[in-house]
Amino acid sequence: LGGPDPLDYVSMYRNLGNPALNVPEHWHYVSFGLSDLYGDNRVHEFTGTDGPSGFGFELTFRLKRETGESAPPTWPAELMQGLARYVFQSENTFCSGDHVSWHNPLDNSESRIQHMLLTEDPQMQPVQTPFGVVTFLQIVGVCTEELHAAQQWNGQGILELLRTVPVAGGPWLITDMRRGETIFEIDPHLQERVDKGIETDGSNLSGVSAKCAWDDLSRPPEDDEDSRSICIGTQPRRLSGKDTEQIRETLRRGLEINSKPVLPPINAQRQNGLNHDRAPSRKDSLESESSAAIIPHELIRTRQLESVHLKFNQESGALIPLCLRGRLLHGRHFTYKSITGDTAITFVSTGVEGAFATEEHPYAAHGPWLQILLTEEFVERMLEDLEDLNSPEEFKLPKEYSWPEKKLKVSILPDAVFDNPLH
């Protein structure tokens, strides 16, 4: 399936599978154009043969072939094109273990397969081309419950479980859009493995883009130094480039591989000593659209706050227990980055170094970026008080939680609140 530019191309093949390995016949889709096809800077900057070719990867997808099907459905190609356009427009890359929250059946049917995980294609190994190295990342369709498990634990762990269940993917992780049961319904013992993994490993999801906001309750809203309205001259205060870089680092996957989690120092550049299992994106995905209006970093001071009010939509709020149990109780950090502005909220544990929130001043802000330091004792209490976040079907909005002695308030609000540009 082709289009007017390179990102639109997807090849489709009939794969006979491998009966000896219990791999069924399926359709195999492979993109081309995310890697460099030409080497002449026409689409991608040519950086040499030793580095990545273009974005360094192509997407693949394996769809179970239905009985009597003589031609491959085209919707997987359109799905892959949508992901490719996201990569081209944002210049953010994918890597094995990543997840994509889609919130819709991948084929626009009534299927329970509504999200995606990414992993290495089982047949297509990385290749060295004249224009650099290309790896092949396979899209794997999953149910909502499996996505949540990947968020709470990690993508690779869930992919390994999917490989053990033939109808849920099997060794080659073939997507069956007619699958009506999750792996936890097929084999209830798998939930125990996930629970143990979360308890032992925590979550490797270090942050999400979300609908969120925060208010400084210790300062009147009309104060000229309100958290999101400070101005120097006529320039609104926004995230500095260095703050943006630091927040982007917290959102990148794999931070838990450090023996002692570290937030990069505010004054650090890209070389900050962190180890990651993915290449940096070619563009800072958190860069403000109004970058020209960013106030010089050195003019923004870090402020200690006495009382804060956190606001989340329901989908973001449902991740708070994951943040607390899977990240902070394991000595890590978790960041919410607003999708509607420069606001960011980072929760940190006492084991995280480099944060500007401290035990003495647990709420601290640097421009529109808020950090909240929570002790293990308080995290345990919050988990008890927020237990109903795990039952969204019984949840009624708006919902408010308050810890007066900690001067902390959390509100779960309708999406419309965050869609209002005056919010």
Task: Write up what this structure looks like.
By secondary structure, this protein is of the alpha+beta class. Helices cover 21% and strands 24% of the residues. Strands 1, 2, 3, 4, 5, 6 and 7 form a seven-stranded mixed β-sheet that branches. A hairpin with a 2-residue loop joins strand 6 (127-129) and strand 7 (132-142). The longest helix has 16 residues, at 75-90. This is Suppressor of fused homolog.
> How would you classify the quaternary structure?
single chain
The averaged pLDDT comes out at: 82
Structural class: alpha+beta
Question: How much β-strand is present in the residues?
Answer: 15-25%
Number of domains: 2
Write down how many β-strands occur, each being a DSSP E stretch of 2 or more residues. 19
* Amino-to-carboxy terminus distance: 43 Å
List the secondary-structure elements in sequence, H or E. EEEHEEEEHHHHEEEEHEEHHEEEEHEEH
Helical residue percent band: 10-25%
Largest sheet: 7 strands, mixed
What sort of overall outline do the alpha carbons produce when their principal axes are compared? globular
Detail the poorly predicted runs.
Answer: 1-6, 223-237, 253-261, 264-299
Global Rg: 23 Å
Number of helices: 10
List the helices and strands and how they pair.
Elements: E1 9-15, E2 26-32, E3 52-64, H1 75-90, E4 99-101, E5 115-120, E6 127-129, E7 132-142, H2 144-152, H3 155-163, H4 183-186, H5 189-201, E8 207-210, E9 212-216, E10 231-232, E11 235-236, H6 241-251, E12 302-304, E13 308-313, H7 314-317, H8 320-327, E14 333-338, E15 344-348, E16 363-366, E17 369-373, H9 376-385, E18 399-403, E19 408-413, H10 415-419
Parallel strand pairs: 3-7, 8-14, 13-19, 15-17
Antiparallel strand pairs: 1-2, 2-3, 4-5, 5-7, 6-7, 9-13, 10-11, 12-16, 14-15, 16-17, 18-19
Helix pairs in contact: 2-3
Domain Suppressor of fused-like: 3-179
GO biological process, one term: signal transduction
InterPro entries: SUFU-like_domain (IPR020941), SUFU_C (IPR024314), SUFU_C_sf (IPR038489), SUFU_N (IPR037181), Suppressor_of_fused (IPR007768), Suppressor_of_fused_euk (IPR016591)
